[in-house]
Amino acid sequence: MSKQTYITTALLVLASAVNAADGNSVIKDSERRIKSATEKTIYRMELLDGAGQVQQTRGIELYYKKVEGTETTLFKFTTPPVIQGTGLLIVDGGKPVNDIWMYLPATRKIRRIAGSEKSNWFMGTEFTHEDFEDYKTSAYSFTLDKEDEACGEQQKCFVVTASASDAAEKEASGYGKKTYWIEKQTLYPVRIDYFDKAGAPAKRLDVRKLAKSGEYWRPQVYEMRNLANGRTTRLTASSREVDGKLDDFYVSQRYLRSE
């Protein structure tokens, strides 16, 4: 290798390392800014067809609690009666692959979701089980692609691409990579682009109507659009409480299977 080639290669490696470090810092700053200790949110869920027409409306509640490094999130359907009581429990204890459980009232049993199943669709929506997970900084590397990109009405975003760095997560995930659009003022991810294992665009999540809830920014609306079939799942918050008192019961397997 010539001296010039060696220097060029070294500079490219250095630039790549700096870029990755910048991406990591943006994600970690975002995580610190947006994560509360507890949260309870009630959503109206709408399932829209490819023409944008609402096909079904559901009610779903979310509970979240962070205690001593473990973050637990529980989703539970409240309406319609045919799916009432169905729920999902995600426990993030810092391991590369989170623990996920699902409860179906028809069977009255809690079933653990294997890592290979977390890319499965969730209850006929355009979300998969893994879409409810957070950044998972221990299992991904982050590259800053752009620092001042337009991202909505009078907004500027960091654009950060996430790629699985952990072998187990890389195998379990249904995505080849994810690109986060993080609004610079709030550090909230206002858009996420999902790419399949072949690198083709698969889905897009947009969040709208950011507003303060206590000390934290939260969106009023989430819209997950499947680019293959055009269908969309929309979540609209009807009530939200952040950093309130939340009993451990609401993020437990006991509450998951309660009806």
From TrEMBL:
Pfam families: LolA_like
Annotated signal sequence range: 1-20
Keywords noted in UniProt: Lipoprotein, Signal
Top-level taxonomic group: Bacteria
Domain Uncharacterized protein TP-0789: 70-257
Chloroplast found in the keyword field: no
Record bears the keyword Chloroplast: no
InterPro entries cross-referenced by the UniProt entry: TP_0789-like
The protein's name: Outer membrane lipoprotein-sorting protein
Source organism of the structure: Pelomonas aquatica
Highest classification ranks of the organism: Bacteria, Pseudomonadati, Pseudomonadota, Betaproteobacteria, Burkholderiales
